[in-house]
Structures are given as C-alpha cells and as structure tokens.
Amino acid sequence: MSCCVSDIYQDFFTNPAILGYGLTSFIEAAWKVKRSLAGYSEQDAHEFWQFLVHQIHKNDTKNSKYIQSKESTPSLDSQNFKSSNVHCDCIIHKTFSGTLESTLTCSVCGQSRKIEDPMLDVSLEIQNKQGSERTSLKDLHSCFRKYTRKEELDVLYECDSCEKKTRVTKRLRLNKLPPVLSIQLKRFEHIGVSSKLEYHIDIPTVLDVKEYVSETNNGPIPNYELFGVICHLGNVNTGHYLAYAKNINGAWFKFDDATITRVTEAEVKKVNGYMLVYCMNEYI
C-alpha cells in the first residue's frame, strides 16, 4: 500500500498530464491486503481510511531502520500502540497522531483520575437523543461540545480515594493536538434497522478548538483550517462518494470519479459532510 501511495505522489508531481486517471494498482493492492474490500459493493469511506492509515503505518514501521524486530513494531489495534505511539516515527503518526484525555470523577468524594489515550481521528455524533426523539445538532462546534461534555456512566467503579464502588462521570478532552485533524461525522446508524442521517451540519472553514482542549495542555493552541471534505450521496445501502479538496492557493475542487471541477467555498459549506480534514494553520 505504501508503494502505491508513493507512486501516486510521484505521478502527481512529475506527470504533465492534466486528466484524471483510475487508481487501479492502488485498489488492487487494497483488495489483496484486505479480501473483504474486493468486489464492487460499496464500502464505507471512514473504514477504508482507517484501513489505509493502518497499512501505511505497518509498512513504514516494518521497513524503518529504527525498528529492531517485528515485535517492536507498534500496532494501531493493540496495547503496544497505546504505549508506544508517541515514539513512532512513521508518516501516519507524524501527521495524524494526537491524544485524548479522559477524566473520571467519583460522584461521592469528587476525586478525579485522568487517562490519556492515542487517537488518529475523532468520531462525532450529529444528533441529540432523548428517548425516541432525535434532533439535529446545529454545527461542528455543537458536535464537539456534545463529545466533550460530562456524562454519567452506567457502570460502577471502585474509587481509589474513598474505596467505594460508585458512579462516576466521564469527560473527554483533546490533549496532544495532531498536525492534521481527521473528523468523522456519524451519519450511519445501525440500531435494529440501519439508517442514514441527512442532517446538515455547518462546518467552519477555520476551527478554533481551544474550548475542547485539556487544561494540562500548556502549549500554544493554533486554529485549524479546513482543506478536505468527503460526502456520501444516496442511502445506507447504496450511493456515491464525492471529495472536496483545497489547494495551496485556496481554490476548492470537487472530485467526482474522473470528473474534477472547481467549486466555491460556499458550495463546499452547503454539502452534508461525512469526513472532514483540518490542518493546523502553521502547516499551511
């Protein structure tokens, strides 16, 4: 997979052709690595993104001169990844790696315990749920506020301070910020019957995340700038993906299979985004 991505970049920067082309070798390599992707049934864009970054991470660390043995290669889906992701020098972690801080607070004595976990993206709910009633959230900031607000957990925890089994509240906050922040908006539900949420969530072109960052982060907190959007047209069973990307000159383009057209920022803000990609201002 890494070789295929490398070939794509080489073609992009060296090939004088201005026409789009099919990523045949890239798709073929993905099919060989993950057989469930093979065929022409629709796949989930976010699941494919997770598969892709995992494979590039795996290939990069496997071939790195800094890795001494197969056992020392971090894995995205293992405890080893959690303990060693900070030290991973692969392109995936340099680009997308951050950390989430979970604060668990005892409802009896108020004692708090903080846990830091790695993240490569953030998945946000786009609706409020009260019983059987569902209402859309307004914008991306509303989604982040829902994600980072305190919630009472249903299970009992043993508090190390008061030594009682009590209910606790949990709060998530961003801690170490990644250079590129990848966000999934949860548009697909699989509760009993699968369904797709067509709510429009307003997405800012400049994202200020200070409100959602842990107090333990003492460094500067830059803004993020939107430069990529993936949206899904259709229903939960079938459909079509479109991608929107901004170039270094600030121009937006829509990618619809082999058809590439220039669009305005206002047009991008009107779409129902499924995945959003933000980059720190200092890297643009």
From TrEMBL:
Domain annotation USP: ranges: 1-281
EC number of this enzyme: 3.4.19.12
GO process terms (BP): protein deubiquitination; proteolysis
A cellular component annotation (GO) from this entry: nucleus
Keyword Transcription among UniProt keywords: yes
Record bears the keyword Protease: yes
Domain of life (superkingdom): Eukaryota
One Pfam family recorded for the sequence: UCH
Subcellular location: Nucleus
Catalytic activity reported: Thiol-dependent hydrolysis of ester, thioester, amide, peptide and isopeptide bonds formed by the C-terminal Gly of ubiquitin (a 76-residue protein attached to proteins as an intracellular targeting signal)
InterPro entries: Papain-like_cys_pep_sf, Peptidase_C19_UCH, Ub_carboxyl-term_hydrolase, USP, USP_CS
Molecular function, one GO term: cysteine-type deubiquitinase activity
Keywords: Hydrolase, Nucleus, Protease, Thiol protease, Transcription, Transcription regulation, Ubl conjugation pathway
This protein's name: ubiquitinyl hydrolase 1
Organism the protein comes from: Pichia membranifaciens
